[in-house]
Amino acid sequence: MQAQRQPIEAVVIGAGHAGLSTSYYLTQAGVPHVVLEKDRIGGTWRSKRWDSFTLVTPNWMCRLPGYAYAGDAPDSFMPRDEVVAYLERYAESFNAPVREDVRVMAIRQNDSDSPSGGYVVETDHGSYTAPIVVVATGFFEQPKIPAAAA
């Protein structure tokens, strides 16, 4: 017997800048969706940046859709932990439907007659079917491409 799949309009994979920005626009458009993050919001910033890392652009340039920097140091450079806090506040500002600690194991075309069509997204916490999947896992992530794709 096949496990139950949760249908939804869109699945966004990754809760960094790109994934959260996508979620913002989906929220504005009224599209039911979920954001799946293998760690926590801003996971790459938490684990793949050194402690003393700072942005090389001033804080006043930090603008995500619908959310600009509003701190008291616009000409300073945000350190790593403040970037993470900024992303967390951004997600909270529009109630982003982020599910943390959910690892995506596979994405494949939905070959069933399900009305949601599109794709099946398999995670370590169950599966989703969705006509839209956005992979926003970051610039330096390594894809796993099966040999058959060659």
Poorly predicted sequence stretches spanning 5 or more consecutive residues: none
Structural class: alpha/beta
The largest β sheet comes out as: 4 strands, mixed
How would you spell out the order of helices and strands? EEHEHEEHEEEEE
Work out the helicity level.
Answer: 10-25%
What is the strand tally? 10
> Which sequence of strands runs across the widest sheet?
1-9-8-7
Q: Give the number of helices.
A: 3
Mean pLDDT value: 88
Q: What is the 3D shape? A: globular
Cα-to-Cα separation, first versus last residue: 32 Å
* Strand proportion: 15-25%
- What integer value in Å does the Rg equal? 17 Å
What does this protein look like?
With 150 residues, this protein is an alpha/beta fold. It contains 3 helices and 10 strands, in the order E-E-H-E-H-E-E-H-E-E-E-E-E. The strands form 3 sheets. The protein has a 4-stranded mixed beta sheet with strand order 1-9-8-7, with no helix packed on it. A 4-stranded parallel beta sheet has the order 6-3-2-10, covered by helices on one side. The mean pLDDT is 88.
